[in-house]
Amino acid sequence: MNSPVRALRIMKVIFLVYSVLLVYRVMKMQVHLHEPVNSAFEIAIGTIALLCIVAGFYAPRALPRLAERRFPNAPTAIRLKQWTMANVLSMSCFMGSIMFGVVLHFVGAHAWLVGVLFGAGIASLAFASPGTPPVEDDGGPSQS
User: pLDDT tens-digit profile of 69-124?
Assistant: First the structure.
């Protein structure tokens, strides 16, 4: 049971290092556009990115509950895979916010919005906790 937790910790570190390096590299690139980006486009993309962060915090709790309702007697191995998948999806949602920041940077959006999306994505990756994995059944006699 320790292996998926360790794999998620390693993935979290890799996601964090990648996102910091990506943000550093993107911020070094200069973007020269002749006309400014539409503010409605900025607001729409920024809102979608913030919704990705909300989804990233919501996914690890909601997806296992949905799976539990559909398959109430699933074995522990299946529940562990669902828990791992929900946490990987959560980290991907946080990375989505950073990617939306990259897009906004390249289309010439305001620097403060790009910085907010980068910062929110990296902070979410850093501070999100995967929670506890599903516990293994003890294999004892079941109560009827």
Answer: 877 777 878 888 888 888 999 999 999 999 999 999 988 888 899 999 999 999 99
Cβ neighbors of 117 (< 8 A, separation 6 or more) are 46, 49, 50, 97, 98, 100, 101, 104
Residue 107 token pair: 């289309």
Q: How many separate helices (H) and strands (E) can be counted in the chain?
A: 4, 0
Q: Are 64 and 80 in contact (CB under 8 A)?
A: no
Distances (CA, A) of 93 to 71, 74, 87: 25, 26, 10
User: pTM for this one?
Assistant: 0.82
Domain limits, the chain: 2-28+37-127
